[in-house]
Design goal:
Length: about 200
């Protein structure tokens, strides 16, 4: 079954129904959230990616999935996926490869935060903050000063400001005092994705 979900939706959450789906179009993120409201992004999920590998292996949901942009999802019959994984080596192998890819993505996000160039670190920080803001105010925006962002990525304000200026010139973000609005989250995600480990 194919369905279109609006930006900001959370179709997968801990304790919720188990889901297996394909992202046909759009951009999403997997994240953890603590009771005090703090969050961390675990993966950025793009078109043609599978969600629900742990559910396919009869494990309960342990993360949230937030749709950053409007997404088209193909919802799979979870029992059929499980039956195929139990009887077809190719399906089980594909799920295993997918889980390995998810681990690699998590390592990539850890590495980009500490080893990425300034552009990559700014892109990750903006995407992460904007996605969190979307859950609260419904918009992809970051309320922070340039000094706040520079501190967050471990750089000087001047260096961070140049990266932000370039993103503004490319139409990825727009800025106002104390506010950065994300106009093109897919391009921010592509910058993060370009980091090689």
């Amino acid at each position: 079954m194919q369905a279109v979900y609006p930006a900001g939706s959370i179709p997968l959450r801990p304790g919720g129904p188990s889901v297996a789906c394909l992202i046909d179009a759009g951009l999403a993120r997997a994240f953890w959230s603590l009771p005090d409201g703090r969050q961390t992004t675990l993966a950025v999920i793009r078109p043609r990616e599978f969600v629900g590998s742990t559910a396919s292996m009869r494990q309960s949901n342990w993360m949230f999935m937030q749709l950053i942009t409007e997404c088209t999802l193909t919802i799979l019959d979870l029992e059929n996926v499980r039956a195929l994984a139990a009887t077809e080596l190719e399906v089980a192998s594909a799920i295993g490869r997918h889980l390995g890819m998810r681990v690699r993505d998590a390592y990539r996000l850890i590495a980009v935060r500490s080893l990425g160039n300034i552009r990559e670190r700014v892109a990750y920080d903006l995407l992460d903050r904007a996605a969190q803001s979307q859950l609260v105010v419904g918009r992809l925006e970051v309320i922070a000063t340039q000094a706040d962002l520079a501190d967050s990525i471990g750089s000087s304000r001047e260096v961070m400001s140049r990266a932000l200026r370039d993103m503004r010139a490319e139409g990825i973000v727009e800025t106002a005092p104390g506010l950065i609005r994300v106009l093109d989250p897919e391009r921010l995600a592509a910058i993060v994705r370009a980091f090689v480990i």
